[in-house]
Design a protein that fits this description.
33% of the residues lie in helices and 25% in strands. By secondary structure, the chain is an alpha+beta fold.
């Protein structure tokens, strides 16, 4: 069974938030409706993570990952987060078409 964070809150790395907004703006330029759908779905997934932080696989792009960095993909958007004792840190957001980079 995964770790549960009883008062877990989600915080965003500023670069991850900026990347997420950029991706949504790009989608919005093609389809505002689709951008809203993608944003809503990803935010809902992120908000569910504190209930079961280990529900997603370990992030294999994280160098020397001790298992605290996890990742999920939705609609070609890759979201990496770190499980911390009382928070979930959204560490990276990228489009899957980008060149994979270890961090």
């Amino acid at each position: 069974m995964g770790k549960r964070i009883t008062k877990g809150k989600v915080i965003w790395n500023q670069k991850a938030l900026h990347n997420f907004i950029d991706i949504l703006n790009y989608i919005k330029s093609e389809s505002p409706t689709n951008a809203k759908r993608v944003k809503t779905r990803i935010i809902n997934i992120i908000n569910s993570i504190p209930l079961n932080p280990e529900m997603f696989r370990a992030d294999d792009w994280k160098f020397n990952n001790d298992g605290s960095f996890r990742v999920f993909n939705y609609d070609s958007i890759r979201v990496s987060y770190k499980i911390e004792p009382n928070t979930i840190l959204i560490a990276r957001v990228s489009h899957t078409s980008e060149e994979p980079k270890q961090y």
